[in-house]
Write a structure and sequence with these properties.
2 copies of one chain form a homodimer. Chain A contains 10 helices and 2 strands; from the N terminus they run αααββααααααα. Chain A is mainly alpha-helical and about 230 residues long. Chains A and B meet through helix 1, helix 3, helix 4, helix 5 and helix 8 of A and helix 1, helix 3, helix 4, helix 5 and helix 8 of B. Chain A binds a DNA duplex (30 and 30 nucleotides) through helix 3.
DNA sequence: CGCCAGGGAGTGGTCGGACGAGTCGGGGCG
DNA sequence: CGCCCCGACTCGTCCGACCACTCCCTGGCG
């Protein structure tokens, strides 16, 4: 029962040991998304370190989005394969990323996933896109609601690409943009026009026209046209 | 001097408070890359939480790659704007990302940055690419050295895109691939052929031919052609 | 019999203190 | 003058305790 697993090569940091043990269990399939981890006190005993060390390791994993803890309930393996966007936000502040760079990164990613989505989108996913597009047209007078549909539309596209890695990256970068836009409501352009461009993207995906989907997504996304200042 | 900064809205988690305080100082420019943070005990007193809480917050930031601690020396703001790739590796193991998906993500990113690099690469960056290409030709009999030049070539391309966000994402995804390849040396294809494709990419970038750079990068990157197994 | 309020056990969150381990610089010794 | 050792400083780990929160289960009430 004991998984002390001494030696551990040359690196014997207690907190790191915790991460490695759990990582091993994850990679071996013994820990699956949604699973609940043993209590910290029990983990400490099993691994052979103190509870503070266990907590340190769990906190690292939590910061990476691998686990999430619920006070009073337990620690669980994350069920949404979502990379946390806070790191990017912090790095943005640290190294002075500009809005242009953020837009550009989003462009590269979204255009790519739009093409893949046109190849592979399922009927259900296409229906979900249509739902969000109609939602956008229905809320052209409510910027807040409009933004929600906007976010969900792009998220659906990312899902439909069939590539969870790209979907995570898109989510990470886009959340930066949407947070930025939430602070600056309403946007300059007419919401009706924006909804129309989304409709065009949707049509291209529905027609499984890869090139058109890429092109429509490309014209939709804000060009780095002299955006005002640094990010945030 | 005290920055207790009570209230803090509705969320009063001690460890989170530490992250927010430091984040604020980073965003306000009071903390810059390479700077050394105050000792944990002093931070604890200044923020008004216990040292374990400070340690918890710092560990979160460390896991995100924002700070790094050196035993016996201190905690420093990270100087390399690099997103850590370990989170992606863990998520890959967790959610069963396949090699195809990894290749595909890398394709989207690398093709994008290749196009940007063709637009913007400076003379020095182009020279650096040439250096790596010649290095690859010179080490076609040494897979290990060849791989090193390969990595550096792609890193130079990413840098030359002028977009640190994209460069970080490329680095994050590519490091997964290179780690995978390091375990599986040597690759199936002839190294000489690979070096030639890199040379073609280099020529396109040097000529500032965006479309050709994208095309050459596209043909260079391994197509998702029935790669064997899960990403491990 | 069914519903709901209460309590208790289990869990993570925080705290203070203590000691070990690593780093670094300065002062003493050769 | 140069080397080495030592001590101050810092992070790393550990312990024990208590608090806050969640969840389930029990018992009483309708």
């Amino acid at each position: 029962m004991t998984e002390a697993r001494e030696f551990r090569g040359s690196d014997a940091a207690a907190a790191e040991l915790v991460v490695n043990v759990l990582r091993g269990q994850i990679e071996r399939g013994q820990l699956r998304p949604g699973d609940r981890l043993p209590p910290e006190r029990e983990l400490a005993q099993r691994i052979g370190v103190s509870r503070p060390s266990v907590r340190a390791g769990l906190r690292s994993l939590a910061a990476m989005g691998v686990v999430q803890t619920r006070h009073g309930s337990g620690t669980y393996i994350a069920d949404t394969p979502q990379l946390d966007s806070r790191p990017l936000g912090l790095l943005a502040a640290l190294h002075g990323f500009t809005t242009e760079q953020m837009f550009e990164a989003r462009r590269v990613l979204e255009v790519g996933v739009a093409g893949l989505a046109a190849e592979r989108a399922s009927a259900e996913q296409i229906a979900a896109m249509a739902e969000e597009v109609t939602g956008m047209f229905a809320s052209v007078d409510d910027p807040e609601a409009f933004l929600r549909h906007d976010i969900r539309f792009h998220r659906t596209i990312a899902m439909a690409s069939g590539n969870p890695i790209l979907a995570s990256l898109v989510e990470m970068v886009s959340s930066l943009y949407f947070e930025h836009r939430r602070r600056n409501l309403p946007p300059g352009r007419d919401l009706r026009e924006i909804a129309a461009t989304h409709r065009a993207i949707y049509h291209a995906v529905r027609a499984h026209d890869v090139e058109r989907a890429r092109r429509e997504m490309s014209v939709h996304l804000p060009r780095p046209d002299g955006s005002p200042v640094a990010l945030r």
